[in-house]
């Protein structure tokens, strides 16, 4: 798998700007680009990326999506005076031309395509392009919503043409519906388009009926257009994670894309005047981390919206940090999605049931739209608040959010978590392991005996077991002391090693330790104090084993496709694990495991979103190396 993260930025894209007063467009300012880039520099992230130059998209590339007429109109604006520019701009909904707009828009297209080439050629694994004007609202024959050329749509058509791709996933986490992208691909089954957006029952711009959850695509494209409408503002981290666990990720894993492109708008983040949502910047690290598990990590992140400069900058940095493989910051706070979000999630799943295997058993009771009913009642006797008021509240809100983010991000970013993996290397294993891996020397027997004597001493009769416990504990200690991020140890008895690891971590002072055990777990440590949560994925019901509050067993038999595994992990294990908010995760693979190596590697990768990626993996021999690779793939 390729390595390295591309960053594409060209300050010339900051020349496009509004020349007259227009309260609708005045938020799309050049500083969006420059302050994001400055923020990346301040976190020393620019120097860790592979710089890839922007270029002008060619007319031919633009014509992959747009009409010749649209191209000609855009080209003609270069020589216009302000009066003419204003007049042409008025032909569109929420768009403004500047003499440099056409050039900037071609740079935005070219930067996007440069990123696609860098990823598809293997020069880098993934990357981000900081571009403006954005693209996802623009249509074949029209500019719209600050967008002139549809950068992401052109990138998808370009990738299909140049690399013969047949399955491209576009994830649009911008807070507005990228109707432009929907129109371009709604009959195309080779492009899966997912968008969530502020909708408020069609009250919020662009106020389209076709932005609702029942717009599933047309003709051959049915099932390949996914709209998740947010019918209330204030959606937060838990709502966004729930949308990924229960809608996007199961579909994405079933679709199995060859390339993932993100229409990465950050107006869905806290403080943004357009979105009015509450999700904090670190949520974008989790969303990015999840998408990195698809398409062999081939991920192109393209900037769309984002109008609160501080929130935008922090979210861009969270995205790039994760693309670089850094540990994912812990998400804190409420983990249950709100009712309105659950309704929307349930409705889009019901609408897509006919088109997806993973939804085959879905009970399609369209939730009585409780929020809709109350909304319609409210509308009956509502007094509309003037646009002007909201503008004023926005301004002092901006300052408040800036202060909140200063504090919030400081707790998240410091101390800098290590990004190394520890393992006990058998001779020569260092050749297999990436430069991130640290070999740990074994612990001596007396020390092990003293550590283990407290419990399970009777179980440890052979030296072999004692030694394996020693190596696991040596690795675990480094993780507990936060000298390394994660580690992996082989063990002849995974259940015993896991039990010792759990007990040792709790005794070390960790308050919440998650254990995901794959296979028959002969020993179940008592979790009565809630300091441990055990999820056991086992093939058959264990005789006499009762599920207690903190010990859940998931009976599992990997079937042919194995994609049910994804919806079990994504729809059950991850939501439970995220709501537990562990400080450490123990992953153990025991005898007659019911998962293949790819399933285990995916599980390890997805669980890296927890506990700042602190994981200790205890594996019974044969799968050790492949799991090591996925661990130190950070
Ligand atoms: N009342 C009209 C509001 C128009 N708002 C356009 C927002 C475009 C966002 C692009 S990400
Ligand atoms: Zn937007």
TrEMBL record:
One Gene Ontology term, aspect cellular component: nucleus
GO biological process: epigenetic regulation of gene expression
GO molecular function, one term: deacetylase activity
Compartments where located: Nucleus
Predominant location category: nucleus
Keywords linked to the UniProt accession: Hydrolase, Nucleus
Tree of life domain: Eukaryota
UniProt keyword Nucleus present: yes
Protein family: Belongs to the histone deacetylase family. HD type 2 subfamily.
Protein name: Uncharacterized protein
Species, as recorded: Corvus moneduloides
Lineage: Eukaryota, Metazoa, Chordata, Craniata, Vertebrata
């Amino acid at each position: 798998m390729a390595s390295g993260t591309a960053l594409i930025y060209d300050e010339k894209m900051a020349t496009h700007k509004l020349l007259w007063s227009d309260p609708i467009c005045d938020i799309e300012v050049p500083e969006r680009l420059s302050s994001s880039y400055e923020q990346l520099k301040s976190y020393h992230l620019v120097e860790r990326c592979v710089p890839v130059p922007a270029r002008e998209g060619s007319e031919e590339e633009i014509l992959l999506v747009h009409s010749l007429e649209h191209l000609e109109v855009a080209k003609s604006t270069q020589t216009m005076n302000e009066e003419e520019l204003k007049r042409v701009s008025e032909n569109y909904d929420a768009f403004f031309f500047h003499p440099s707009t056409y050039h900037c828009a071609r740079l935005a297209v070219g930067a996007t395509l440069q990123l696609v080439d860098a990823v598809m050629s293997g020069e880098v694994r993934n990357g981000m392009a900081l571009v403006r004007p954005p693209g996802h609202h623009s249509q074949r024959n029209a500019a719209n919503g600050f967008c002139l050329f549809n950068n992401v749509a052109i990138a998808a058509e370009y990738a299909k043409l140049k690399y013969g791709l047949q399955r491209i996933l576009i994830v649009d986490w911008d807070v507005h519906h990228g109707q432009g992208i929907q129109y371009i691909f709604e009959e195309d089954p080779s492009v899966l388009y997912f968008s969530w957006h502020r909708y408020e029952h069609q009250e919020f711009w662009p106020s389209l009926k076709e932005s609702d959850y029942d717009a599933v695509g047309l003709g051959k494209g049915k099932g390949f257009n996914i709209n998740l409408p947010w019918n209330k503002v204030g959606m937060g981290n838990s709502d966004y994670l729930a949308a990924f666990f229960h809608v996007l990720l199961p579909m994405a894993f079933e679709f199995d894309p060859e390339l993932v492109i993100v229409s990465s708008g950050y107006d869905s983040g806290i403080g943004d005047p357009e979105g009015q949502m509450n999700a904090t910047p670190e949520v974008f690290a989790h969303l990015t981390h999840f998408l990195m598990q698809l398409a062999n990590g081939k991920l192109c992140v393209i900037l769309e919206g984002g109008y609160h400069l501080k929130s935008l900058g922090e979210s861009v940095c969270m995205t790039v940090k994760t693309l670089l493989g850094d540990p994912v910051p812990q998400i804190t706070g409420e983990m249950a999605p709100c009712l309105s979000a659950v309704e929307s999630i349930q409705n889009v799943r019901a609408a897509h049931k006919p088109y997806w295997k993973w939804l085959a058993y879905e009970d399609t009771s369209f939730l009585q739209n409780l929020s809709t009913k109350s909304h319609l009642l409210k509308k009956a006797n509502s007094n509309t608040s003037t646009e002007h008021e909201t503008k004023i509240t926005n301004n002092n809100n901006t300052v408040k959010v800036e202060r909140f983010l200063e504090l919030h991000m400081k707790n998240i970013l410091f101390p800098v978590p290590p990004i190394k993996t520890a393992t006990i290397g058998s001779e020569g294993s260092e050749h297999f392991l990436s430069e991130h891996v640290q070999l740990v020397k074994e612990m001596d027997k007396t020390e092990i005996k003293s550590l283990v004597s407290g419990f399970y001493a009777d179980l440890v009769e052979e030296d072999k077991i004692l030694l394996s416990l020693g190596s696991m504990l040596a690795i675990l200690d480094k993780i507990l002391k936060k000298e390394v991020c994660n580690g992996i140890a082989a063990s002849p008895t995974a259940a015993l090693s896991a039990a010792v690891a759990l007990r040792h971590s709790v005794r070390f002072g960790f308050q919440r330790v998650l254990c995901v055990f794959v296979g028959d777990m002969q020993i179940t440590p008592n979790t009565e104090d809630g300091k441990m949560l055990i999820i056991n994925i086992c093939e058959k019901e264990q005789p006499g084993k009762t599920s207690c509050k903190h010990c859940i067993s998931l009976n599992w038999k990997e079937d042919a496709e194995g994609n049910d595994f994804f919806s079990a992990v994504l729809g059950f294990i991850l939501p439970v694990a995220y709501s537990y908010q562990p400080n450490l995760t123990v992953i153990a693979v025991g005898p007659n495991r019911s998962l293949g190596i790819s399933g285990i590697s995916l599980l390890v990768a997805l669980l890296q979103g927890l506990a700042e990626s602190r994981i200790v993996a205890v594996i019974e021999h044969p799968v050790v190396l492949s799991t090591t690779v996925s661990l130190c793939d950070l």
